[in-house]
Amino acid sequence: MASQVISPEAVHHHDVHGHDAHGHHHESFLSKYVFSMDHKMIAKQFLITGIIMGVIGMILSILFRIQLAWPDKEFPLLEVILGKWGEGGRLNPAFYLSLVTIHGTIMVFFVLTAGLSGTFSNLLIPYQVGARDMASPFMNMLSYWFFFSASVVMICSFFVETGPAGPGWTIYPPLSALPKAMPGSGTGMTMWLISMAMFIASSLLGGINYISTILNMRTKGMSMTRMPLTIWGFLLTAILGLLSFPVLFAAVILLIFDRSFGTSFYLSDIYIGGEALPNSGGSPILFQHLFWFLGHPEVYIIIMPALGITSEVISTNSRKPIFGYRAMIGSFLGISFLSFIVWGHHMFVTGMNPFLGSVFMFTTLIIAVPSAVKTFNYLATLWRGNIQFTPAMMFAIGLVSFFITGGVTGLWLGNPSIDINLHDTYFVVAHFHIVMGCSAIFGMLAGVYHWYPKMFGRMMDNKLGYLHFYLTFISAYLVFFPMHFMGLDGVPRRYYTFTEFEMFTKWIALNKFITLAAILGAVAQVLFLYNFFVNIFKGKRAPQNPWHSNTLEWTTPVEHFHGNWPGEIPAVYRWPYDYSKPGAEEDFIPQTVPLSETVSSNTPHDFGFHGDESQFVHEYYQPKNVSAAVEQNAPQAN
Amino acid sequence: MQDIVMNTEETKLNIRPIKFVMWLFIVASIMLFAAFTSSYIVRRAEGNWVEFELPSLFMLSTVLIIASSATMHWAYLSGKKLNFASQKMALWLTIVLGIAFLICQLLSWKQLVAERVYFVGNPSGSFLYVISGLHGAHIIAGIAVLLAPLIGVYRNIAQVKNMLRLELASIFWHFLDILWIYLYVFLLLNH
Hints:
The structure holds 2 protein chains of 2 kinds.
Chain A lengths: L7 H5 L16 H6 L4 H31 L6 H7 L10 H37 L7 H20 L30 H30 L12 H33 L9 E2 L2 E2 L7 H35 L6 H14 L15 H13 L1 H15 L8 H23 L2 H7 L3 H31 L5 H27 L19 H31 L87 H12 L1
Antiparallel strand pairs in A: 1-2
Chain B lengths: L1 H44 L11 H24 L3 H31 L8 H32 L4 H31 L2
Helix pairs in contact in B: 1-4, 1-5, 2-3, 2-5, 3-4, 4-5
């Protein structure tokens, strides 16, 4: 095996670890586990950091859910845990705002952007396109460490005197621009900005690498239309990030100048405590434009990797080719393009010209078309498939469910006339938690269950996986579905005790119900954490190709080493979705199997011939007797 | 034996992706400045916008940076012809011109202050400082990128390797030149 080592440092380092059973790893602990430049290790680092951040974000949400459900009750335990933020057993109002802000920031950026894209782009891009590593492994390592530092700074903001940032995850000025505006606008806000600046650097370093690797380092035969849809998802996600994160960076730079140097980009005519500030000539709306120019593509940055993963998982576990492969690519492209011209729908109530509003409505509602194409293609792939209900498959189907439920309410909110009523209510909270939060996290979990054997060489426990799925699925719907009705009644989001208003007192019972459902959902995640972390060490050894999948990553050895394939990188001869191909011996044909070995199942289409089948002649093509083929397929079609 | 074969396979493959990475970085930069210039337009359209003369020294800095692009190209051509002496010379000239450009930008800020256009004040002035300042920050990064092939020449590393550094520096430097011309024309048209 030693001759298969590719990484040059492996030759020089003789710092062998006793417990390291794999003979071909001669890396030091630091270069293998900490400052690793191997895409597989970096993927695991992203995943585990993402999971830890996810757990923190979830705990924050449980804290503010407790406040919403029992606004009058004292919980002495809160004071024990939170100190002055839970004085007298009641959550501090300023801290409530900080909790909401940091929950949003962590979930949107740290879990569903870095945790999702970072994990699966790093793991799957070199594997599935057939490359030894990323274009620049060094930049890749830098990307993780920027992300890690950003996470640390974000968490550290809990330990400053004025608490973490509190102006909401969208950090609209003036709250975010005036350090004296409220406790959450002070040092915590500065740390938020520092953390996000590092996060943007991490995203750009990662994204640039993903794009360059996909476009330049595909193995022989891996044309763009033979790439698995996961890779298409990651590619377009990275492109969106590359085009939109610099704009957020610009917004953040101007905000930092306003906060710390006294400029007036976003500030004008403001009084604090009866005293006028010198700022004049700024426009807070400008910030919203810049923010949402990132913010809207950002929601697709979150959902597209999840959609890519789902395409792969659903096709593999339905034992059927993905329905409408090119339409799937087309809809990815459509969503990516449209995502840049819809940001105004977040700003319908900022005094926007109604004509401009209807333009944004038009572009927004058009996104329903590519999204529906995806949904119908998932359903058509499932249709009469030989469905294997693995935990990954359950979560992928869960994504489709949430994507439909949340997508439909998007049509409501995309209409300015309806949005004026629903803006900043719980309807919006319900909408984006279902379509972006739940869908994306289900996609991410589908990916974790599906590629866990590839990541850790061991299997997760299926029974715990099913339990985790059902509890999460049910509790997610119980938490977010009722919020639609609160929103229709006009309940505003981000309020500390909205049930004190007479017109909303009736919602207190529902608030309790939602909080209990949220706690159930949180407990379900403990099952996942147990299943995930224990099986890294104790899980059953994974076979080479546990899901009988076609893609290239399953041709690599179970044991990891830098360089992925021991010999030459395999060439690719077909698309990745040859499942249950009529005439084939098995119900899957990996991408590495040449057409010459599958004469019985080849179709003229495989040779790029799209005309009359009877006219086609090729040495590897066996014309089929049509009735015989139907007979052969009869049991399967049942 | 296999090790060596694979290593050459990797170096062969790696040049294209690395150059591509530079182009993608430039795309990110373009988006950054697109954000600034479009917010400039949006903000300006809202009124309450103090008009003032652009510093006349911007003209000189434009000339300096165009000249530095020319010397950069000279360095690239000499590198290609393996003429190390003139490659060294041209890189030094480019760096000196880059530093002269930065000094010129600082002096034009001084001109602005003399005109009573301050960083803190009406956004029309603040935008000018931010845009030219961030371009300046890019120039500093550009000089760092230029140092890589220069050090390469002094250390006598293989020219095949140094050519990659030189090409990357040249792509980035010409981009900074074009970026400044865009920003200058933009500011001339919108003030």
